[in-house]
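Z., the sequence and structure:
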Amino acid sequence: MEWGDIVEEYTIENMTLWLICLKGLSEGVIDEMYRLCGSERRKKADRIRQGEKRRQSICAGYLVYLLKQRFAVAEEPVLSEEGKPVFQGHPEVYFNISHSGDYVVLAFGSRELGVDIERVRRAGLKTARRFFTGEEYEYLLETQEGERDDAFFRIWTGKEAVVKAAGCGLSVSPERFCVLGEEVELEGKRYELRRRRFVMGEQTVWICAAQLMEG
């Protein structure tokens, strides 16, 4: 199995994204990915009964395997106090994982980062009113109705990516910071946002990676 046949690679500034589309992957390929996953990832996958989520977990584990190969890391990642996956012996390798539907993405770079991927579906204005800033909500309302779902997930992935980069989880309300621009300040730190929008067949996918800015 050649990883280049399965994983698409994108370079964004000083970050790299690896993207897998699960659609069309045979069970034989999934089984081979499972074999290459670390022991803890295999145990995690074994506990998942739902087929799609299990395949997502295995693909995530496979991307971590590739990352370990890229940086000659022998250890398995663990969760930090902030809930972020880290290599304790290789703190210089920053990475983050996200999945949605048929897609799994891993982002890595040389500074703290977070990534989120979402397939575009029906946007919820009630959700936006609760979690978006006033500026973001007004932006959404002013967007043409046919483009509103797309705009919603452009914003949503930005918020998720920043929260994951900061490692603050639910301790920070997403309506406290705005992601309409390409830079965000949160908890005294500044993050740069890098977005990609993919149209794959009849499905649109948004990916946003947020990385801690230097200085």
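The longest helix spans residues 51-71. Helices lie at 27-36, 39-46, 51-71, 125-131, 134-142, 148-166.

Let me know what you think.
H.
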